# Entry
Amino acid sequence: MNRTRFLLIGLIVALLGGCTMAPQYKRPASPVPANWPTGAAYQEAQPAVPALTAEQLPWREFITDARLQKVIETSLHNNRDIRLAALNVERARALYGIQRAELLPVVQTAGSGSKERVPADLSSSGNATINERYSVDLGVSSWELDFFGRIRSLKDRALEEYLATDQARRNTQILLVAAVANAWFTLAADSENLQLSRSTLEAQVASYDLIRRRCDVGLSSELDLRRAQSQVDTARRNVAIYTQLAAQDENALNLVVGTPVPQALLPSELGGVTPPREISPGMSSDVLLQRPDVLAAEHRLKAANANIGAARAAFFPRISLTTAIGTASAELSGLFKAGSATWGFAPQIVIPIFDARTWSAYDVTKAEREISLTQYEKTLQTAFREVADALARRGTVEEQLTAQQSLVEANAETYRLSNARYTHGIDNYLSVLDAQRSLYSAQQVLIDLRLARISNLVTMYGVLGGGDK
# Structure
């Protein structure tokens, strides 16, 4: 008897540890080229000696400005999107725990007692009687023996969904680091534009005062004075515009951080910040396979694959077991006396004969897998495009900066010469106005290009799935 019992237990354990009916998972072929784009726009995109990749570079090493590091640390503790992502992970982990527990029996104990009076005409003895019953049972109720892997497939699906949620949390954190950095650098650029507008206003006011004095003694015309006044008004307008933009940038930064950022941590100009480190995408696009959103899409594909196993198992019999051992007695005092033991054993098998819903459910799981596969491929294609765009930007922005810096210097010299010619009465004030406008516009574009270069470094870090530690 003991040998038979051990053989039965061993058979159950072997069956429970068996394989599922899910198809064998194989990572799909990548729908993007193996190498990054090449061409004139990418001439600086692939250094001869590869730098650190984003995955190798934690954000604390990528972001080198001490003030920005503190701002990002604050955002990681206060941003509501990060909190929601972490809570979603906890929820998914709990759901996985519930599904995994389905493999184990639920052991319960129950105690009951009853007392009933039976009238004489219903009693077998012809006399009124009082019946009592007391019992205590310990047992398992409807434990499904997972012979065909249905529950294990559902457990695997829940695990993959949990892992996908965790990768989504990682992606949210990386995007938050990039968003905070971009908001901080944008504030720095607009603050520098505000300083430029203020210095331009001061220069225009000084020029207007000079022309007004020259006009009073007849050395300048009324037309020159009005032109100078228009430049003062334009500069005043620009100061107001960039004052507004800087305030809005600070509001946006406070929102993404989740709390007001102290003034001591805010940048005053773009030239005074330390830019992030350069990173490399490597020589192959395989690095995209480690991007959190790509990993999340792959985990969802694995979950859909496991769900097919559960749908296939639904075509096969389900075997469940209900059993209990305990004690029962007509008297409460005799509940645990010798001879009061009870037991029950009730196995059940349900064999599906015909259920059209089962076939439809199976078709649904196959369609869901194809949907997940398509989403995975689209995620990879989107990731490749984002990196390619960032590489194209990096391959051309340095040349733009060099050309723009030269243009600023040329316009500055033109403005100096035009102003000198006007002061000595050789040229009219219109040439000074044109030179000043060109210089101011060139200086603005230079600030925007410097911001674009820094922002592209941040973008590169994000699109390559930068380290979240």
